[in-house]
Amino acid sequence: MSSTAAVNLHDYIRDIPDFPKPGIVFKDISPLLADGEAFSASVSELACLIPQGTDVIVGIEARGFIFGAALAAQLGIGFVPVRKPGKLPGEVHSIEYELEYGIDVLEIHRDALSEGHKIVIVDDLLATGGTARATVDLVRQLGAEVAACLFVIELGFLGGRDLLNDVPIHALVSY
Known about the structure:
Elements: E1 14-17, E2 25-28, H1 30-34, H2 36-47, E3 56-60, H3 63-75, E4 78-82, E5 92-99, E6 102-109, E7 118-126, H4 130-141, E8 145-154, E9 169-174
Parallel strand pairs: 3-4, 3-7, 7-8, 8-9
Antiparallel strand pairs: 1-2, 5-6
Helix pairs in contact: 2-3
């Protein structure tokens, strides 16, 4: 097996035209996840971007769970999921946010984060930035500090970075 530094992550991301609707080119990370070396390389590259003193990784449903949980395990820190409504037991804190096609809601356990926690938000893709912005606002409402937002892929032409101009953002692959 070669060094993970030699892995070109672009080679493991395929385009699926007209998914989920005509005119959209979906960036599919399934080949990256299916290849142990590529997946390990992506998690290792993300780990290098984590600021010192980070307490918790917050992963956005659903693919943010894959990278976020692996990253938290590698670093020996906690993982907290941000989910769609009705998926978390117990008391939750919610936030509504606007999508290009309507309104959505994200939830986090009320006791998952508290004042002084330094967190990093992880997801597979930064597109328009609405979900990531809502997640930043959600965790801040619990008193946590957002140290960075990390993504495997950024679709720069969609301008999602503009919604997150108050947070350091890093992506492993940009289109």
